[in-house]
Design brief:
The complex is a heterodimer of chains A (about 120) and B (about 110). Chain A has about 120 residues and is mainly β. Chain A is built from no helices and 11 strands. In chain A, the strands form 2 sheets. In chain A, strands 2, 4, 5, 6, 9, 10 and 11 form a 7-stranded mixed beta sheet that branches. In chain A, strands 1-3-8-7 form a 4-stranded antiparallel beta sheet, with no helix packed on it. In chain A, strand 5 and strand 6 form a beta hairpin. In chain B, strand 6 and strand 7 form a beta hairpin. Classes of the chains: A mainly beta (about 120), B mainly beta (about 110).
Chain lengths: ~120, ~110
Amino acid sequence: DSGVTQTPKHLITATGQRVTLRCSPRSGDLSVYWYQQSLDQGLQFLIQYYNGEERAKGNILERFSAQQFPDLHSELNLSSLELGDSALYFCASSVAPGAGSYEQYFGPGTRLTVT
Amino acid sequence: DAKTTQPPSMDCAEGRAANLPCNHSTISGNEYVYWYRQIHSQGPQYIIHGLKNNETNEMASLIITEDRKSSTLILPHATLRDTAVYYCIVRSNAGGTSYGKLTFGQGTILTVHP
């Protein structure tokens, strides 16, 4: 158990819909990262937050957005869903913003299926 | 961040040491070598990381060559539960736009058999 929690574990929804994925980082970790893992693209970095502020962006679509709240939990919002958005979505956390040799701890993921 | 090259797959007998190689010939001085593994669609699990010196923890050992262009992850006594995809990642320890993101390649599928 990494200490990172994600809800829900599974999500099935239809094209065009909007969903919210939730992540709670490990106690004491200030930085949260979101990754997407699909069969054809592998594990890809989406976005990073540190103490409520966006710090880095990766291959995140405009239809996707995220935020980190004062209690440090984070939410990833996916809208206008397409079949190709079906994937595993992982959240990770670390102590620091990323500079330095800080390891990231990953949650169990949310499996999103868009039908 | 420097690119890494890993063999797509490897086999290992249970109880034997598993030696997973990684090539990172373009690594620069401020880049660390990290190893993660992913067991069947679970969240990636941190294993170990290092800069120059060899490192050991309760899970594995990391051997980095003197020129830092390659490294080897060693699982000393592989078990069936070590069957997973192993990712070698090189990441800068500096700040900047990349910050802490991890860039995953295809990794090595390690299969431990009885």
